[in-house]
Amino acid sequence: MDTQNLKAFLLVAETGSFSLAAQKLHLTQPAVSKRVAQLEEQLNITLFDRIGRTISTTEAGEALLPHARAVQLEIQAAEQSVRDLAGEVRGRLRLATSHHIGLHRLPPVLSFFSKTYPGVHLDIDFMDSEQAYDLTLRGEAEIAVVTLAPAPVGSIITRAIWPDPLDFMVQAEHPLCKQRKMDLEELSRHPAILPGLNTYTGQIVKNLFDRRGLPVQIAIATNYLETIRMMAAVGLGWTVLPRSMLDESLAALPIRDARLERTLGVVHHESRSLSRAARAFIDALEAAMDR
């Protein structure tokens, strides 16, 4: 079974598009179609249903996917083992991270790393932490620096780097700031601006209210914390943000019966042999724990 044909199949399945797969492979679309056709001919099976412009994997395609991903991981591990024989920290390191971490946590780490290891080309993808987990599971990112999932994710190894306490916040002039006593029940009566419930941070907040049997009036949901801070600062509702984002436009609400925290860290696939560059980057992250 040709590994290049497998790689083409994998990219078409993950992107849902022959043209996008072709872009990632730096090939023409007909060339990608030919590789998939050769794989289908070899296996004597149809791997994709093509209905109009929609591409979806068949039952056989779904069965092949995990094996194709495993093959790709093994190939990457073999290539990395050979490169590591040279003993130098160099090459390409594909890293996924969230916008918030990239803005507020990574700059000093990136600065140190790029100066210490100039032979490493950093390829950084910015996305939601949940998407970064998926990218890591598929073997497309070697490591990801993210908000760690509240519960363990299969095949993913995690390393906590930064505790990230969360505070309830509201516009400094908001009527909620004038109340002497504040609890979750009172907050549940007011509109909230929160990360989407598809995010780990949104789930942490929602689970807290669910455990108390309280509703959350989500007026606006967005995954971008900077946008949430702006909307809370103009008085559109209360929110929950990392304590590090508190500024003069917002006031922290002393909720007496609640404490929230998330953890930021680095993740990688348990089956992937980390390159010297990836291990050096994790070392740089761990050094940042003490600063």
Can you lay out the helices and strands and say which pair or pack?
Layout (H helix, E strand, L loop, with lengths): L2 H13 L2 H8 L3 H15 L4 E4 L2 E4 L1 H26 L6 E7 L1 H6 L2 H10 L3 E7 L2 H9 L5 E5 L8 E16 L12 H4 L3 E4 L5 H12 L5 E5 L3 H9 L4 E5 L7 E3 L7 E10 L6 H13 L3
Describe this structure in words.
There is one protein chain. With 291 residues, the protein is an alpha/beta fold. It has three domains: 3-82, Arc Repressor Mutant, subunit A (Orthogonal Bundle), CATH 1.10.10.10; 88-162 and 264-288, D-Maltodextrin-Binding Protein, domain 2 (3-Layer(aba) Sandwich); 165-260, D-Maltodextrin-Binding Protein, domain 2 (3-Layer(aba) Sandwich), CATH 3.40.190. It is 43% helix and 24% strand. The protein has eleven helices and eleven strands. It has helices at residues 3-15, 18-25, 29-43, 59-84, 99-104, 107-116, 129-137, 184-187, 200-211, 225-233, 276-288; strands at residues 48-51, 54-57, 91-97, 120-126, 143-147, 156-171, 191-194, 217-221, 238-242, 250-252, 260-269. Strands 3, 4, 5, 6, 7, 8, 9, 10 and 11 form a nine-stranded mixed β-sheet that branches. The relative contact order is 0.15.
SSE string, helices as H and strands as E: HHHEEHEHHEHEEHEHEHEEEH
**Computed Rg:** 23 Å
Q: Output the structural class.
A: alpha/beta
Q: Mean pLDDT score, rounded?
A: 89
CATH architecture of the largest domain, please?
A: 3-Layer(aba) Sandwich
Q: Provide the CATH topology of the largest domain.
A: D-Maltodextrin-Binding Protein, domain 2
Helical fraction: 40-55%
Largest sheet: 9 strands, mixed
For the record, what is the CATH homologous superfamily label of the largest domain?
Periplasmic binding protein-like II
Low-confidence stretches: none
Q: Proportion of β residues?
A: 15-25%
Shape: globular
Number of domains: 3
The top-level CATH class of the largest domain is: Alpha Beta
End-to-end Cα distance = 50 Å
Tell me the total number of β-strands: 11
